[in-house]
């Protein structure tokens, strides 16, 4: 289902915000690529895809999309969704990355989004002040790494798709290479060249972002460990801590 939910009039406005609830399965309308965008997810989970790359955005996180970014948004469960559309002349002074980047949301940016949603009811001076605070807050947000690189190579892409569909598969690189008609050495080289990561590091990152998704929807540690192919719950906890600096339980409490 597609809903045109966050385009608003007055394209000359410095900061345009939309805030509201999106149901599971909703695919929001495409963003205005002539402006930079910041999308936030609250009380749920969404996935972002741009070309072959993926980002898994859990509760209280978002993503920075520089001007020209063409992405699709998949709402994995009911969420409060917010978008900030930024005029180019303002966005270019924020010092943000030139690629899509995950952001950690704050209560302040969430509150600003809700307030700016009612822009028509606000005096112009108040809108400008809120817009200025929003820009300042966006520039200060933390950048946790939840990026799962993709690949334009058919062999690497096929292995990635297989692992995403079967994350419990603990096959060796040689076995995975044989599935796609490549040698182990070739597939190893392609993973590094296409993603900047070894295939094992990519698989670890994939398991981490899938674990975040499972934690978000309330899965138990034992269940997640089994689904993702870990030998034991303790092995999963160790791997999760290596990626995030905290245990799954600590992540739940922080959230």
Descriptive account of the structure:
It is a single chain. The two termini are 29 Å apart. The protein has helices spanning 88-91, 107-117, 124-140, 154-165, 173-179, 184-195, 199-216, 221-227, 233-244, 248-254, and strands at residues 2-3, 15-22, 27-28, 36-42, 45-50, 53-58, 61-65, 72-75, 79-86, 101-104, 147-148. The chain has 255 residues and is of the alpha+beta class. It is globular, with a radius of gyration of 20 Å. It has a five-stranded antiparallel β-sheet with strand order 2-9-4-7-10. α2 runs antiparallel to α3 and α7 crosses α9 (233-244).
Topology of helices and strands:
Elements: E1 2-3, E2 15-22, E3 27-28, E4 36-42, E5 45-50, E6 53-58, E7 61-65, E8 72-75, E9 79-86, H1 88-91, E10 101-104, H2 107-117, H3 124-140, E11 147-148, H4 154-165, H5 173-179, H6 184-195, H7 199-216, H8 221-227, H9 233-244, H10 248-254
Parallel strand pairs: 1-3
Antiparallel strand pairs: 2-9, 4-7, 4-9, 5-6, 5-8, 6-11, 7-10
Helix pairs in contact: 2-3, 5-6, 7-9, 8-9
**Could you give the order of the helices and strands?**
EEEEEEEEEHEHHEHHHHHHH
- Largest sheet, order of strands side by side? 2-9-4-7-10
Give me the number of helical elements.
Answer: 10
On the 0 to 100 scale, the average pLDDT is: 88
In short:
With 255 residues, the chain is an alpha+beta fold.
List keywords for this structure.
10 helices, 255 residues, four-stranded antiparallel β-sheet, globular, 11 strands
């Amino acid at each position: 289902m597609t809903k045109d939910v966050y385009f608003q009039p007055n394209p000359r406005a410095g900061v345009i915000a939309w805030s509201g609830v999106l149901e599971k399965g909703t695919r929001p309308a495409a963003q205005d690529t002539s402006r930079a965008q910041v999308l936030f997810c609250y009380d749920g989970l969404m996935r972002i895809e741009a070309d072959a790359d993926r980002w898994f955005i859990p509760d209280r996180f978002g993503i920075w999309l520089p001007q020209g970014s063409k992405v699709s948004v998949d709402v994995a469960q009911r969420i409060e969704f917010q978008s900030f559309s930024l005029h180019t002349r303002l966005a270019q002074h924020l010092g943000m990355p030139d690629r899509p980047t995950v952001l950690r949301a704050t209560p302040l940016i969430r509150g600003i989004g809700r307030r700016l949603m009612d822009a028509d009811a606000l005096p112009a001076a108040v809108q400008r002040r809120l817009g200025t605070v929003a820009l300042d807050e966006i520039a200060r947000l933390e950048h946790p790494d939840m990026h799962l690189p993709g690949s334009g190579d058919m062999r690497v892409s096929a292995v990635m798709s297989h692992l995403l569909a079967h994350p419990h598969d603990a096959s060796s690189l040689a076995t995975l290479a044989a599935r796609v008609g490549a040698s182990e050495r070739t597939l190893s080289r392609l993973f590094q060249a296409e993603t900047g990561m070894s295939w094992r590091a990519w698989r670890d990152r994939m398991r981490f972002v899938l674990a975040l998704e499972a934690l978000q929807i309330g899965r138990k540690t034992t269940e997640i460990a089994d689904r993702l192919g870990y030998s034991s719950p303790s092995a999963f906890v160790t791997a999760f801590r290596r990626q995030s600096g905290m245990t799954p339980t600590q992540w739940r409490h922080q959230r």
